[in-house]
Design brief:
single chain, alpha/beta, seven-stranded mixed β-sheet, 30% helix, S-adenosylmethionine-dependent methyltransferase activity
């Protein structure tokens, strides 16, 4: 089981947050989404490693995030906040990192957030005077963005086919959104390149590729290599009929760099956040124990010429 998947369901953290959306019991359309969320409590799917293409991955992950958005926001909403920009479970905050640039330079900038979830990052960007657009594959995640509120647009769309004109944005960002879940990340990168203006910056974070060699466990059992780093076979969870209900794709560090460059970007920085002493929480396979020994996140800072 991979880190991002575990982050959404396995974390032992507790939360006093109350993000569950109250649904009208008489609405069939809305109750359909709600029943999907309840489905997260059903039988565990089979975990395997097998091929999964672009269409299958997109369909599976849209359904998974719609079903599990409530649980994800309940479990991790307090850590993420309503209007913070947190890049990763290590807790690296854009206030400190300034990977998109100094906060004062964000004023008036058009920013696309990809895989926005409940749009916490977009809310922070709005507070800096930017003009964000929050995009996510999951309708249910965007319902949480509506619940929290904000004055920026919310767009439900696949990141491999962005519904924006060429050169629409000054900046783009993605904190664990889209890139780990698509069969061909170059489709996303080329789309982002297309919608960025010349000189635009795209910053995205993903599970550090090294983590794929280790079991997805926060304790000592997660410190021994158990698989080949070079095995790029996707991690798939499938139902009794063999249909994928969740897919995550592995790329080596070299793959990620080549994807960035061949999609027309310059890689200007690669950030591997260290685990800070203040962070005592566990998030799926992330933990202080592992975080002090092996990297958990890779953040790619890219620019469009």
């Amino acid at each position: 089981m991979r880190d991002t998947r575990a982050a959404a369901r396995k974390s032992p953290q507790t939360s006093t947050r109350e993000p569950v959306i109250q649904e009208p019991a008489t609405s069939e359309a809305v109750s359909g989404v709600a029943s999907g969320a309840e489905g997260a409590e059903g039988p565990e799917p089979e975990a395997t490693r097998r091929a999964a293409g672009v269409t299958e991955s997109s369909r599976a992950n849209r359904g998974w995030w719609d079903r599990n958005a409530d649980e994800y926001q309940t479990e991790h909403g307090t850590f993420l906040g309503d209007d913070r920009f947190v890049w990763c479970p290590e807790g690296l905050d854009e206030v400190e990192a300034e990977l998109l640039g100094p906060p004062e330079d964000l004023k008036g900038k058009d920013v696309l957030e990809i895989g926005a979830g409940a749009a916490q990052c977009s809310r922070w960007l709005t507070a800096q005077g930017a003009r964000p657009v929050a995009l996510d594959l999951s309708h249910r995640q965007l319902q949480h963005a509506l619940r929290i509120g904000g004055s920026f647009p919310l767009v439900c769309a696949d990141a491999t086919v962005l519904p924006f004109a060429d050169g629409s944005f000054d900046l783009a960002c993605s904190a664990y959104g889209a890139l780990p879940f698509v069969a061909d990340p170059r489709l996303v990168l080329r789309e982002v390149h297309r919608v960025l203006r010349p000189g635009g910056r795209f910053v995205f974070s993903v599970t550090h590729p090294l983590r794929w060699s280790f079991p997805d466990e926060p304790g000592p059992e997660g410190l021994s290599v158990s698989a080949s780093y070079f095995d790029r076979t996707p991690y798939v969870e499938q139902d009794d009929e063999g249909l994928a209900v969740y897919v995550e794709h592995h790329r080596t560090l070299g793959d990620r760099v080549r994807d960035v460059v061949t999609s027309g970007f310059r890689l200007v920085d690669l950030v591997e956040p260290e685990w800070p002493e203040w962070n005592t929480s566990e998030w799926g396979g992330w933990s202080p124990l592992r975080g002090h020994l092996i990297p958990g996140t890779a953040i790619f800072v890219c620019e469009r010429d």
